[in-house]
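Re: beginner question about structure tokens

> Can someone show what the tokenized structure looks like for a real chain? I only ever see the sequence side.

Sure, here's an example I had lying around. Input first:
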Amino acid sequence: MSSTTTRTLTFESNLSDENIKLLLCFVSQEKTVYSTEFPVAWRVKTFRAGSYESFTVRFNDESGVCEAQSGPQDTIGVGSYAPIPCPTPGGGDVVRITNRSGDTSDIGFACVSEINEKGFPVPTITTVFKDVPDKETVVADSSPIIRAYIVQGNVTNYEPTQLIRRDPKSSGSVLLWEKNFRALQSCKIVIDKENGRYIPESWSLPDSQQLQDPQKPQLPRRGDRVYNATLAFPDANAVLKSQRAIAENLFQKGYRVKFVAMEGNSDATMVLTLPSSASCNQAESDINVALASLQSTQNKAVIRSRYATVLEQETPHFILYKTINPTSDNWNKSPKSVTA
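And the corresponding structure tokens:
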């Protein structure tokens, strides 16, 4: 994976009856962590019960060294910054940093640049070395572990950019998820709970180099097939809790997915544009697999009705679709084997 690849990390809460606070940070694999070097709180997010909120951060893995400027309540700011060559993906490398400031200094290591709203990378300190004497060299882990904690216990006031002086688990927080940073692919983590334990459900997503420009959606093409299904859920709350998981499951199999749900309604519409290798039969089978994969039996759904269409003609002024009957041969064939 190229070191300039921009990746996306999304967390989402699926908890209907519990507020949770999530802490993201990068933790060094060096033995000096929490003694002379300290992680920095990268992101802190509170999810409200029943809101099914999510938050997303985009970043690349540019590395750099900076002056760590101390702020109020142990927060850290980025002083003078110098990028350094990115290590080889896969881990195992370290970066040696020598203090040549002429005085004892706090040194920051940044292994990630967050992408701001304008699309520009902004250096983000992930590790701070405290009180480094002049001319002394410190060793930074260039492949830290990115960790997500559910904040609990007697420390609940973490703030973004705050120095973390001891392992969050030692004060009662729960480690939810972790991954070696250099090996991390774009992904989405849905937070659920089962038998009193927090469960992270993970879906891989394409890195941003492969994502379409959201302002330029893929246009329909002649021969495209669209499968439409009405899904019947036990209640409207089950629709809200399940729709993203179902859509992510199908997205991974190459479908373009549209999910339509009305507030207070226990029925929802799933619209799939089929990949080139799938028949309508295959789409229906994949939907049933996605429905069966829902962890909670209270969220289970069934297909109430379905039909399909194929794009037969497109002009600058209109698009013509023809209905495919579930009893016809075309229903069972992939688009490649059908002449539209």
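Each token stands for a local structural state, so reading them left to right follows the chain. The chain has two domains: 7-204, 225-337.
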